Amino acid sequence: MNKLSAKISPTSGPLPITLHLPTPASEKDPQEQNLIQDESDAERPSKHCCTRWPFRAVRRVTCGLILGACVAVSWAWGTHSAKETLIRHPTPFFIIWFCSIWNILFFPFYYLCHLLTEKQKQLPTTEFRKCSQFLGEELTVRIVLKGAAPFSVLWSLSGYLYLLALCRISKVDVSAVVCCSQAFTFLLSWIGLKDRFMGVRVVAAILSITGIVMLAYGDGFHSDSITGVALGVGSASTSALFKVLFRKRVGNVHPGPASVLLSCAGLCSFVLHSWVCVLLYFTHVEYWPPSQQIPWDKLCVMASLLLVFNVLVNVGGMFTYPSLISLGILLTIPASAAVDTFVTVTLHISDVRAAAASIISAGYLMLQLPENWDESTLRWLSTLWRGNWREDSVVGEESVVEPAGIARAKPKPAVVALS
User: Fold this and answer.
1) What's the whole-model pTM score?
2) Shortest CA distance to 75 belongs to which of 338, 314, 335, 298?
3) Do the Cβ atoms of 325 and 75 come closer than 8 Å?
4) For 58-93, how does the pLDDT look when each residue is reduced to its tens digit (9 = 90+)?
5) Of 26, 38, 101, 146, which shows the fewest CB atoms inside 10 Å?
């Protein structure tokens, strides 16, 4: 009679039937468990890498939200101060000349940010020469004035048209029209700098122009809104030409060269544009009697707020993502409406103007899309789809899922021979 027994050593008889039984975890070799744990740890990314980069990203996003809010508030409150200054002292060129002089402080602000962010700190003269290489190797007063004079003229002209528009239309409409400067920058860059053609940005430019037309004819054909919107479009176009000319002269916009250029533009305004103020005063184009007191307090508040706005726009990229600063520029529209409501308490926006502001905002957001946004979106969708498909297939095959995402190694079978 055959007897069932477990074979310890092989015999010359037929091969036994083997049953593959999983080994319990308690009976595994400790060295094998350590090896499996090391392999699973090697497959996972480092904890330091996972904790360091998200912290930096969260810090930059938080800083960007704060700076974006400061951009919106400074522009809205500066526009309100400009409106009050124009009511008390209707001299737009003198006002913009006074505000342009404050641009000399751009480079000191940039150097202060350089001391806060950079590990290798340099002297002010060394950093100035490093950031002003686009002006030439030898820096003289003549070279600085010659290189920055066109930018100073464009800056003053844009501000002058902005103040003229503010005399005829509301602060919310001026802020909406100024946001269209991004669309004009794209069109001028496409024509003059041969930038890449993007259909979505062309659609955004069309939306911006549509919103401008709706703002112009929101109160009818016989109103000051047409003239005010036209002046606002001139200010936005001049600002766009300033940006395109800067890119053509310097290249990509960086905080250092931008701060040097704007400081030199403020110096040019002080040296070259003073005679224009004198000429306008003696020709009674912008005249005020000697007995009339100039509102220096309103002028200083307006100049300081506009300086803060421009510093955050041009230098804020050192602390956060530029897209968040661009979002702050868009928020100037509701911020202006909020300041107007808080001050006048009788703000009334028609449905046509609200629709125009919404269309301009949609176009502005479309202009912020990167160049390869379509390819990145398709790649992300394909990755997401493949990831879901693989996860479903793995779940269908595996019946046991370990907690906390730790993969269990394939158990080593125990061999039992039956004869």
Assistant:
1) 0.74
2) 335
3) no
4) 888 888 889 889 999 999 999 999 998 998 888 999
5) 26
Quote the DSSP letter at residue 403. G
Residue 349 CA to residue 333 CA, distance in Å, equals 12
75 and 69 Cβ atoms separated by less than 8 Å: no
Helix or strand or coil: residue 349? coil
SS3 call for 71: helix
Report the C-alpha gap between 253 and 151 in whole angstroms. 14
DSSP of 6-37, one letter per residue?
--SS--SSPPPEEEEEEPPGGGS-HHHHHHHH
The pair of three-digit structure tokens given for residue 365, joined into one six-digit string: 């957001």
Q: How close are the terminal C-alpha atoms of the chain, in Å?
A: 13
Q: How far apart are CA 134 and CA 145, in angstroms?
A: 13
3-class DSSP state of 183: helix
Query: How far is it, in rounded angstroms, from Cα 172 to Cα 349?
Result: 9
**Tokens (6 digits) for 309:** 């706005």
**CA nearest 214: which of 10, 358, 33?**
358
The predicted-structure confidence for 336-349, as pLDDT tens digits, reads as follows 888 888 876 566 77
Pick from 198-202, 227-231, 372-376, 393-397 the range whose average pLDDT is largest. 227-231
Cβ neighbour number for residue 373 with a 10 Å cutoff:
13
SS3 390: helix
Strands 413-418 and 17-22: antiparallel
Query: Which residue do the tokens 């124009």 mark?
Result: 86
